[in-house]
Amino acid sequence: MTKSIWQRSFPLLYTHKENKLAKYVVTGTHVTLNATDISDATARAELSINAAEVETTDFGSAGWTEVIGGLKSGSVSLDFHSDFGAGGVSELFQDLVGTVATITLNPAGATVSATNPTYTAQVLVTSFTPISGAVGDLATFSVTFPTTGEVSYATA
After folding, report:
1. Contact (CB, 8 A) for 31 and 38
2. What is the Cα–Cα distance from 107 to 44, expressed in whole angstroms?
3. Enclosing H/E stretch for 149
4. Which of 17, 58, 76, 107 is the most buried (most CB within 10 A)?
5. Is 89 buried (19+), middle (13-18) or exposed (0-12) by CB count in 10 A?
């Protein structure tokens, strides 16, 4: 195989082995709310962590905007299959509106490891929609809660 001028000039760029990132299909996210396992009723889970942009542009920025990271925030979004039975997820949310609850999320089951970390967040339960749907639909509801305080990450 003939090497290009770039490959001959910069051989290290073309001889190293690429690191491949692990991939996985979401099949068993473990979700708890106030230490109650709600995984069986959860159809989707999403944790978002953000930092505010704080502008630091000055006359020395050569006409470019400059920013730094500011206050961090987060949110947890969950989709559920409605369950009105004793101990069901709907009963669990009934009295939580307006309170702070603890949510834990593990990407692939309850066992914590370096490849299956636990994210723990305190969230403000801002709303609950116990009834939603049309004739013939699966009874579901979705929630999105802001985090309060730091979102922790553990691998053991």
Report:
1. yes
2. 11
3. none
4. 76
5. buried
Instruction: Tell me how far CA of residue 47 lies from CA of 57, 144, 151, 152, in angstroms.
Output: 31, 10, 10, 12
pTM, two decimal places:
0.80
| Gap between the Cα atoms of 65 and 73, Å rounded | 23
CA–CA separation, 82 and 142 (whole Å): 10
In whole angstroms, give the CA distance from residue 124 to residue 144.
9
| Length of the chain (residues) | 156
Q: What is the Cβ-side half-sphere exposure of residue 9, based on CA atoms within 13 angstroms?
A: 3
Beta strands in 13-151 (DSSP E): 30-33, 36-37, 42-55, 67-81, 100-106, 118-124, 140-146
Q: Which residue has the tokens 């925030």?
A: 73
Domains of the chain (ranges, CATH numbers): 26-154 (2.40.30)
Nearest alpha-carbon partner for 125 in 85, 77, 84: 77
Q: Is the pLDDT of residue 68 over 90?
A: yes
Instruction: Reduce the DSSP state of residue 38 to 3 states and report it.
Output: coil
